[in-house]
Amino acid sequence: MLADAKIPITFWDEAIATACFVQNRTLLENREKNQETWDDSDNDDDNNLNTEYPFMSFHNLDHVVSNQAPDPSVSQEDQVSNNFDDVNPQNSPNDGGSFQNQPSSDPNVEVIPESFDYFINSPEQVPNFTPHTSTILQDLPNLNQSNLETQVQGDSIPTHRVHRNHPLSQIICPLNQRTMRSQIEHANICLYSCFLSQVVPKNISEALQDNSWIEAMQEELLQFRKQEVWKLVDLPEEENAIGTRWLYKNKPDERGIVVRNKARLIAQGCSRRRQPPGFEDPKYPHRVYKLSKALYGLHQAPRIWYETLSKHLLEHGFTRGQIDPTLFMKRENEDLLCVQVYVDDIIFGSTSSSMCKEFEEIMKSIFQMSSMGEINFFLGLQVKQSADVIFINQSKFVEKLLKKFKMQDCQTIRTPSDVNCKIQPDPKGKSVDQTLYRSMIGSLMYLTASRPDIMYAVCVCARYQSDPKESHLVAVKRIFRYLKGKPNLGLWYPYEGNFELYSYSDSDFGGYALDRKSTTGGCQFLGPRLVSWQCKKQTNVSVSTAEAEYIAASAGCSQVLWLQNQLLDYEFNFLKTPIYIDNIAAMFITANPVQHSKTKHIEIRYHFLRDNSEKGLIILIKVHTDKQLADLFTKSFLSGRFEFLIQSIGLINHD
């Protein structure tokens, strides 16, 4: 409850009281049909949970303030209904851990939840009241106005004092012993004792000091025993046993809260391995484990797992994708079930809920897998689903990166790259930590899975990983400053809309100052949904804009053909897919097979664009430069043009 409400641990007592309040008014599953809760017979009207709201929710506070203006004749100090020194006994918690509700006499005023015993004075909604002294002065004309006080200054210092000296009769502890005061640090440790460990141990000695990680390691070894992965044998002569080591990792949910401590025991390369550190057999400490099945750390493990999984799925009526071997599909009448496999993480969806339940039962019975419910977090991607749209972003990962690289307090900026300062080699510049620079680039590259707005800036900075300078580090930090201002941007996938495949392709002619090579950019859509995007420096130097655009269109054609083949597994056949470019000369080169001075030196591998155009797989269409969405992946822009492009590709801020 504290984690969901995002409040500090000092509110633990309010959380317990709220939990008791709800539990005492909720019917349990094992109750008889007509059995009431303990509080039903006395407070029928107060036990209606339809009026309850989430813990620490400010649902009704604005409504109460707007309908109850404070009395101007009452001082600000008297507006407080209760304080922590003088509590009204009628509002104190009862033995059941709940609060007695005090309904208002006004039917138009909603009741504030019982956990709030104070009046909230909103300066935005409550009008300012001034004393009406004009009427009083008219009734009393003989009074000297200089002797009148128009404002009364209240005493802000409380009159109630707490004395340290108490009578001996009130002291219950032995007088000859010194009183030991509790420390708040110890209290916090006790409070967190029921939660999973938040710290990942670096070695086995640290893990053995935490009960959470001990249970995680025991769970891993229990699975080995159930699956008959190994057996304990004597080490043969003239053979060496391979060592083992533990890997530890926290499994967070979509909110970033740790929900599981995962421990894995991996081999270091052979079929005979030493006993796991910290869990040696006391009777046979010198024996080794002989593997009967593939396990983590072995080169055969991924292949064996995929073969085992695909075998069982094919036996249950699934078909494997022709293009994507990790895609499995099953049809029953007009219903379809799709299963996508990524190592040991599986996502699936169907047009029939019964097919989903059947698949869950198969995975539970064969592989002892557990269903996590509706997908909301997968491989670092946060997924929010509603009745008409799917939203994907990585806001938690952005928050983690800002904290990791100490950029959480930086000033925000509106664009990830500076249009007036191009990133160039800086041989005379000051060198920076190469490990830190590469770590930043790698983290940002992973973030581009849902943030195409930083794709170009990250790719340009990634060109200087071999010898980064201070100017390059400043450019990378600018990307973090941009992310600080827009952490919640994500891809918007509406259910409504057409389902046509089309692509944009563009290039920045000679944009790289070091070798004058151009940058290729492209993006592909299924209706209004962005499904793929690219940014890459071309491998050869183009001598004209037509050549650079032609090479970029060839790269876009390759991506379109790959998507066409992918969609064939879903029984979608797209022909004559439009590729929008803003260069007429490149279109003429595709349509006209005659060689001339601008095309005779173009490599043969780029001419497959013309071949696929003749086959009817793609078609080139002219688009105005202002509507060329692939520009986002080829150069820097001012904030106005940049905002237009990210909104046009479907990148939306979702708070």
From TrEMBL:
Residues 32-53, 65-110 are annotated as: Disordered. Residues 37-47 have a biased composition (Acidic residues). Residues 228-272, 274-416 form the Reverse transcriptase Ty1/copia-type domain. Residues 65-107 have a biased composition (Polar residues). InterPro entries: DNA/RNA_pol_sf (IPR043502), RVT_2 (IPR013103). This is Reverse transcriptase Ty1/copia-type domain-containing protein. It comes from Tagetes erecta.
